Amino acid sequence: MSLLPASLERLIVLLSRLPGIGERTATRLAFAALAEGDEYLGDLARSLDEATEKITYCKSCHMLAESELCRICSDPGRDSRVMCVVATIPDVLAFERSGAFRGRYHVTHGVLSPLKGVGPSELRLHNLRSRLTEQGVEEVILATPTGVEGEATALYLTRSLSDLGLRVTRIATGVPMGGELEYVDPTTLSRALEGRVNV
Ligand SMILES: [Zn+2]
């Protein structure tokens, strides 16, 4: 390592912080990036700068966005009567890949976990009730993960939204226990959505 220029070492250290990238892979990526040449490196640097500057969270659903509202929230073609509550942004992408859902989303950015000190106020739930009432939502689909914490989160949401008089449903358990939605294949996810049950 010490034979390499300091700037390259820094790049390798930064890359190796990403999930699934060990030091060897990071080194390989850094060398490959250098081999691409100055134009590529400039583009990569600008792209990172742009991402840093522009990417934020949607004020409404908490998905990634480049302005106040994300692409899904600003799309008038989406069905505002149905809202799918998911734990993570990759879960939104999984539903979008399946093509089975045309409603709106609400991303909680986590699940309830008393052991890890995650209570309702740690999740992005502050505007969920107002979204449901103001946007004329008729059905909330709870698509939090199927593990203990995901179920606890779904139960909490069911109880805390029960006074709104909405149909509250839970996606069917075609999804493996504790499995994260992002790893579920589109067909299974479509079936889980179709087979949702009232809670
Ligand atoms: Zn949004």
Instruction: Name the hetero compounds present.
Output: zinc ion
Please name the CATH topology of the largest domain: Dna Topoisomerase Vi A Subunit, Chain: A, domain 2
CATH architecture of the largest domain: 3-Layer(aba) Sandwich
Helix content: 40-55%
Helix/strand-derived class?
A: alpha/beta
Radius of gyration: 20 Å
Number of helices: 7
Average pLDDT score: 92
The helix-strand sequence is HHHEEEHEHEHEHE
Tell me the strand order in the biggest sheet.
4-3-5-6-7
Shape: elongated
Task: Supply the number of structural domains.
Answer: 2
CATH class of the largest domain: Alpha Beta
Give the total of beta strands.
7
Q: How does this model look, in words?
A:
The chain is α/β, with parallel strands linked by helices. The protein has 2 domains: 6-54, Orthogonal Bundle (Helicase, Ruva Protein, domain 3), CATH 1.10.8.420; 77-198, Dna Topoisomerase Vi A Subunit, Chain: A, domain 2. It contains 7 helices and 7 strands. A 5-stranded mixed sheet has the order 4-3-5-6-7. The chain is elongated, with a radius of gyration of 20 Å. The protein starts with 5 loop residues before the first helix and ends with a strand. The model has no long low-confidence stretch (mean pLDDT 92). Residues 58, 60-61, 63, 69-70, 72-73 line the site of zinc ion.
